[in-house]
């Protein structure tokens, strides 16, 4: 500064003009130094760091590079130069230092925020991240970081100790609790969800209250993001998963089996005892040959031991078409390649009602994929509906318009035939 002043004094300028021009010249010089320092930092230092990172065997430092942690850190160099140059301008020294400190606080906050993002991204590369997500904790850390940065900026502007400002926050605690209510509830809920392993990223959950039915794609401090099967996104408050009930299908997916629970309603008027001709035909069915033979032997022995008159079907024990049909479905499912053999497999009768006798299939497919599961279920019932008439059974169905028209046509034909005769 003295050198610049001496040079300007040689031109015979006034003291005020010399002071003004010397300050301006020095400010331009410092700005040029800052630009040069920033250029060297980014073109030499930063490129060297990038080269080292790209050529080592680690991957986590690449993530730090992607989050631009070092790029943001390079902005501190000009701020340090400006702060160090503040004594050159005695009249503006305090103001320059304050502005430089505020800028450094903001840059440092951005660096730590980017570093936290990098930590989360690195953590996501591990399988444990699906079980124990930390995004909520990262967001809490960012909130604390921003609060601390704000306090430091304010303390720098007013020239007070940051602890004094913090002591004044006690009176604002109620307001802060109200402002950060959702964040506090979300943090507590996130801890409970994580510690109890209630939900993970990738889980299929169902929560009718929030019209959510799909896969969890993200868990944040305040919300759990669910992508529904219709590709819409539902945002559920984290604390709602603690206070309300929801269904998690993870157990089904982990077990390797998906439940099939569906009934076919049998017309009760088609249920009857098996005739000898029917038994002969049913014995030809591969899945029933051994069963029918064994049951006939048991029934004959029982009826002979109890001297039962078999001329009437009501006496003694007899085979029924519904009983053989139920056994056939059971054997069919046991031999089906898409049915899980190590899980529950039941073919049972439910209480008969207005819609006939429900014959329920309770089994598990060995593929939990939705499309495959629906295909397996449809194939099974296609076969059951098609094979039921072989056993002399009819599936129950309420009369349709076609049935009414057909009945009307039959009556008209009968009336014409009677009048013709």
UniProtKB/TrEMBL annotation:
Q: Sorted alphabetically, which keywords does the UniProt record give?
A: Membrane, Transmembrane, Transmembrane helix
Q: Which residue numbers delimit the Mechanosensitive ion channel MscS C-terminal domain?
A: 329-387
Q: By its UniProt entry, which Gene3D superfamilies does this protein fall under?
A: 2.30.30.60
Return the InterPro entries for the record.
LSM_dom_sf, MS_channel_C, MscS_beta-dom_sf, MscS_channel_2nd, YbdG
TM helices/strands, residue ranges: 20-40, 76-95, 101-119, 140-158, 164-180
Q: Which residues form a coiled coil?
A: none
- Annotated Mechanosensitive ion channel MscS domain ranges read 182-250
Query: Where does the UniProt annotation locate this protein?
Result: Endomembrane system
SUPFAM superfamilies (UniProt xref): Sm-like ribonucleoproteins (SSF50182)
User: Topology with regard to the membrane?
Assistant: Multi-pass membrane protein
Task: Please verify whether the record's keywords include Membrane.
Answer: yes
Give the principal location in a single coarse category: membrane
**Which family is this protein grouped under?**
Belongs to the MscS (TC 1.A.23) family.
- This chain's protein is named Mechanosensitive ion channel
Q: Which organism is it from?
A: Paenibacillus polygoni
Taxonomy, top ranks, is: Bacteria, Bacillati, Bacillota, Bacilli, Bacillales
